[in-house]
Amino acid sequence: MEDAPTTPSQSSPPQSPSFRPVVHTYEEDMARAMDTTEAGAVQTLLQRAKAQEAEERETVKVYHQRRWYSAAGIILLLLALSAIGYGFYYYRHLTVPVSPAASVGVFQSTDPVFVDTTDAPTALGGLLAITLLPEGKPLLVPLLSDATNRTPLTPQQTFTYLGIDADDPLVAAFSLVRLGVMNTGTTVTPFLIMSAPDPDVASKELLLAEPNLLGMVANTLHINTNDQTNEVGKDFVSSYMYNLPVRTLHTTDSASGEETILLYYGYANQHTIVIATDPTVLKAIYDTIIRQH
Fold first, then answer.
1. 88 to each of 74, 77, 280, how far by Cα in Å?
2. By the 8 A CB rule, do 184 and 151 touch?
3. In the chain, N or C: fewer CB atoms in 10 Å?
4. Do 123 and 129 contact (CB within 8 A), yes or no?
């Protein structure tokens, strides 16, 4: 028996190529792209990517460096401005002004005394015995270290040589201390003349020294303290001599009851202090300084 022929209506429809299922994956596309791309092109793309990445990193690095340099520059600028400001303040307020050389004025002088060979009592005795000194003219006595170097004594050395037991603050109040003598017409009287850079400090130190001042300068100013036991430690009083302010220590004569000046100190000008026993010494020194101006 022959098989029955198949009718067209019962046969399967022909398959068209356009209906074939298309299935692609990303991996397959990349693999196909890599297969179809030349190796040189890929290498070029990789190099470009690396170069771009390096350029971006360098850009970030330069950016951060510029920010750091800018911050450091601002800090340095502020420090420089602060230093300039501090220097200006220090110059205006803290620097010590240049001081003129210490001086008590221009006076005539006696022959120098070399302290290495002549002690103070011998030198004072010789000065008070001079009879040819000009009357009414204060003379200064150069106290020098020796005949070779001829170095003037410092205030401390002068006090020590004259036997004046002054404490350090009192000595430091004077930049120059000189011994002097003057012929008053009846006698030769010694005196001390000193330069005080700060009159307020010098006045304060002299006020503190007043209870002991007579004993300190008695030998230098030729004061016999054996007759003045009641005046030792006595208070000084403020007064004026020739319109100049002074502090005086008075004594009373036991026989006549007359009060006289035993010792005084005062200002011949703003920075010059005189310690003496005869009031005419202060006037003569003041007149000498005034004539120089």
1. 21, 17, 50
2. no
3. N
4. no
Between CA 13 and CA 22, with CA 17 as vertex, the angle to 5 degrees is: 120
Q: Cα(109)–Cα(93) distance, rounded to whole angstroms?
A: 41
User: C-alpha distances in angstroms, 95 versus 79, 92, 98, 216?
Assistant: 22, 7, 9, 37
To the nearest whole percent, how much of the chain has pLDDT over 90? 46
Three-state secondary structure string covering the chain: CCCCCCCHHHCCCCCCHHHCCCCCCHHHHHHHHHHHCCHHHHHHHHHHHHHHHHHHHHHHHHHHHHHHHHHHHHHHHHHHHHHHHHHHHHHHHCCCCCCCCCCCCCCEECCCEECCCCCHHHHHHHHHCCCCCCECCCEEECEECCCCCCCECCHHHHHHHHCCCCCHHHHHCCCEEEEEEEECCCCEEEEEEEECCCHHHHHHHHHHHHHHHHHHHCCCCCCCHHHCCCCCCCCCEEEEECCEEEEEEEEECCCCCCEEEEEEEEEEECCEEEEECCHHHHHHHHHHHHHCC
Per the CB < 8 A criterion, the answer to whether 144 and 117 are in contact is no
Order of strands across the sheet with 237-241? Answer: 108-109, 139-141, 176-183, 188-195, 272-276, 259-269, 244-252, 237-241
Do residues 59 and 52 touch, judged by C-beta distance below 8 A? no
Query: For residues 16 and 266, what is the distance between their CA atoms, to the nearest angstrom?
Result: 139
Please state, in angstroms and rounded to a whole number, the distance separating the CA atoms of residues 136 and 167: 33
Which of these, 220, 155, 152, 214, lies nearest to 181 by C-alpha position? 220
- pTM beyond 0.70: the answer is no
Q: Is the pLDDT of residue 260 over 60?
A: yes
How many CB atoms neighbour CB 221 within 10 A? 21
